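If you are new to this repository, start here. Below is one unmodified record pulled from the training split, so you can see the exact layout before writing a loader.
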Amino acid sequence: MVEIKERMIQYFEMNESHIKSAINLWANTRGIDLTIGDSEDEIKKYLIRNTGFSFIGLDSEKNQLIGSILCGHDGRRGFIYHLAVSEKYRNKQIAQELIARSLEKLYKIGIKRCMVMVKETNYKAQLFWSKNGWSQRNDLRMFSFDLMKNE
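And here is the target side for that same chain:
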């Protein structure tokens, strides 16, 4: 019998040095769509404005980013964007650990509710969030407006 060693996953606050790897992970994760607000520069601004709320998971043997959560707040509500874990690392509680770290930071500053947006067609994500205690809101519709349509 061959014993398979579990890889060591380390967690860190996301910083500027992680942005390219995080964007690459998001771009290669089914169900995550990158938009005009997901450039390296925009993510850098978001992390500066929301320092300490976003995290990455790192396979320490490979020194490879394998999970990330982009989280912040507006002063009254927390928001999670782009929770992703590399497919071969799923079902190892990595996503739950990333969420817990972000929620703990929000809680410490007095944020009482956190929201996550999930595409209507992303059934796996909807099931994940439901199984982890999140409630689906059917009373709201999201609208957006692109300020820089012609750029």
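Two things worth knowing about this chain: The mean pLDDT is 92. The chain has one domain: 9-131.
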